[in-house]
Amino acid sequence: MKRVPQILTSLGILLLVGGWWVGYRGDMAMAKKIERKSVEVRLLDESPNPNAGSGKNAPGFVVPAVERSDKEWANRLTMEQLRIGRAHGTERAFCGVFHDTKKNGVYFCAGCGLPLFKSDHKFDSGTGWPSFFQPFAEENIGETTDNSYGMSRTEVHCVRCGTHLGHVFPDGPKPSGLRYCINSAVLNFQESGPEPKTATLLLGAGCFWGVQAAFDELPGVTKTEVGYAGGWTKNPTYKEVCGDGTGHAEVVKVEYDPSKVSTEKVLEYFFKIHDPTTLNRQGPDVGDQYRSAIYFTRPEQESGARRVMGRLTEAKKFPRPIVTQVDLAGPYTPAEDYHQKYHAKHGGGCALPR
Fold first, then answer.
1. For the residues of 67-93, what is the DSSP string, one character each?
2. Residue that terminates a domain, selected from 174, 191, 208
3. Is 242 a known active-site residue?
4. Residue 161 designated active-site
C-alpha cells in the first residue's frame, strides 16, 4: 500500500509534463503561422564597432524566412528559450541576464542572429525586463495582437524566424514614446569593441577532406577543423551523417585573422572552390550532407556573405542561381580524428575542389 502515493505522484508528473508538451506543441504551431517565405530586413554591417551607425542606414537585404522543425529548434535552443521563444512564455521579472546590462553593443535574435536592438536605445523601465524605446530597424520586428490573459496587447517577434520576443507598450520615453519589453532568454549580445583577433565561419562545400585542404592554403587562415553542423542530431557520427537522417552538413570550421583576410575575401575564396548552384550535391557526391552552406558565428558576417552572393549573381559568375544556405551557426560537432587533415595525411581521398 505504501507504493500507491508514489504511483500517484509519478502519474501526476507525467500528466503535468504531458499537458505542458501538448500546449507547447500547439504554441509552436502558432509561432509558425507568422513566418513567411522571404522577408526584407536590415543587417549589421561589418565594421570594427558593431554599435556604430543607425539601423536605418544598415544594409537591407531580402532573405529567406527561417523555418526549422521542432527537432532543429530543440537542438539549438535551451528549454527556457523554447518555452519563451517558441511557446510564447515569459521569464520572471529581474531574473533575465540582460535586464540591467549597461554594456555597449547590439542585441540579436537567439534563433537566427538577426539584429534586434541596440544598447543606445535601452533604458531602465523599472519593470525587471530589458526595455528599449526603438528597435535596431523597424523591418526586423514583427507584431501580432495578443489577447491572452483577458487583455489585448501587441506581441513582438523576430520577423525572420518568428521567435517570440515580448510586447511593446505606448508608455516609453521620448522620442518614440514606446517601450519594447523583451525577454533576455531570446537575445544574444555582442559587445562593442575592437575587431576580434580571430573570427570563425563554418563552411560546407562538399566532401570536407578536400575543402579543408583548400582552406589550409588561404593566407590569413589560422586554423581549420572538419566537423558536422546545421542539423538536429546531437553529437552525430560520420556514419549517421552519411545515413541522411541527421540534417547535418559536412563543414570546415575556418578560423581566420580579420586583420589579414576579411570575411568577404574568405567567402569569395569559398565560392571559387565549389559549385554553389547544385542543391545537396558536389560532383559525384550526393546528399544533404554535401550542401553548400555558410554558418556565421558573428552577425555582421551575414551581411558580408549576402553582399558577396549579390555581387556574384549580378556579375553572372554562375550559369544557375546560387543555392547556398546562409544561417546562424548552431551546435557544431568535430569529426572523428581520422577525418582531420585527411589530405595532408594520406595525399588522396575526395578530389580537391577547384
1. ---HHHHHHHS-HHHIIIIIT---PPT
2. 191
3. no
4. no
